[in-house]
């Protein structure tokens, strides 16, 4: 098993792993994201764990302008992290993180940011084991907009 930069002939295998990480996303959504990641190689990098019979894990790392809990800019950010079920608890996730961190360092970063869903205890424990400190818990909201908001009253201020 080797940790390597994603090759252009591995996009389908990468997609297969992304579908396992995000079963609620459509293939189209995931493919579009992949195209965006690949289009900006200055700000994004993907490392894969390659076994003899194919890919068994990946990490997506980016440069973000800022991240909660980080004081330097830009920061390296773990955007996605996945190891195939059958290959977990063997240090592959750690090696992927180390590759992502080395890439960020090589891009001038001195800090990394990352996140994990509230209920994802494994990811939270793994982050802590890899030296990441929790900095914030956050609840995200969204609302679909419709034309009813157009009736809202916004006064004109004399300039
Ligand atoms: C999170 C994930 C990538 C870890 O991959 P992995 O290859 O099993 O990780 P490693 O074997 O390198 O373990 C790294 C550290 O995490 C900790 N860890 C990993 N799995 C753990 C578990 N199930 N319970 C507790 N700690 C765990 C270990 O302490 C380990 O450190 P150690 O080897 O020094 O003890 C993997 O569990 C996964 O793909 N999970 C599903 C997807 C996911 O949740 N991704 C993260 C989204 S934020």
Which percent bin holds the helix content? 25-40%
Any low-confidence stretches, pLDDT <50, length ≥5? none
Taken as a percent bin, the fraction of beta residues is: 15-25%
Give the spatial strand order of the biggest sheet: 1-2-3-4-5
Average pLDDT works out at 96
- Bound ions, cofactors and other small molecules, one mention each: coenzyme A
Q: Please give the radius of gyration in angstroms.
A: 19 Å
Text of the CATH class: Alpha Beta
Ends apart, CA distance between termini: 66 Å
Order of helices and strands: EHHEEEHEH
Provide the number of structural domains.
1
Q: Helix count, per DSSP?
A: 4
- Would you identify the CATH architecture? 3-Layer(aba) Sandwich
Shape: globular
The biggest sheet amounts to: 5 strands, mixed
- Quaternary state reads single chain
* CATH topology assignment: Aminopeptidase
- What is the structural class? alpha+beta
Total DSSP E strands: 5
CATH superfamily: Gcn5-related N-acetyltransferase (GNAT)
